[in-house]
Amino acid sequence: MATVMVMSGVLFLAPPVSAPPAGAQPAAGEPQAPAAAAAGKSVVGEMALVEAKRQQLAAREAALAVKEQELKNLSAKLEARVKELESAKAALDRSLDARKKVQSANYQKMLKVYKALKPAEAAQLLDKMDEGEVLEILNEMDQKRVAKLLPLMKQERALRWTRHSLAAK
To answer: Does Signal appear among the keywords (predicted)?
Structure first.
């Protein structure tokens, strides 16, 4: 009598597990013992193959779960690093804003000093300064003050400021 086994929706017929008694002759119409043993080995082999595949899939699933956890950990680390960098950027922005305010206040003080100087003294100092700084100071001064300074400055510097002012418009 054959044993019926169902695995994953597949129906397997297996031969009886017990061996016939020693010296017993198979009846007419019954399969020979070697054929039955071969069929049993075939089914057992297929079951072993299915079990091996299941184990491989389980191992892959476990490996994927480990990789997924590693990715989650890396993602959390990256998010923390991004927050840290954003915080540092915000601190740098605040520091830069404060520095700009100080520089602006210093610039305004210096501009007041140059406006308070006599035109000849201011022109003499401006002629010794860097070109960019002079252009910036002259652009911040009112027209009357610049009109008094230009004739006292070096001619090439006055002409550069004039060209720069015209190009800016």
So the answer is: yes
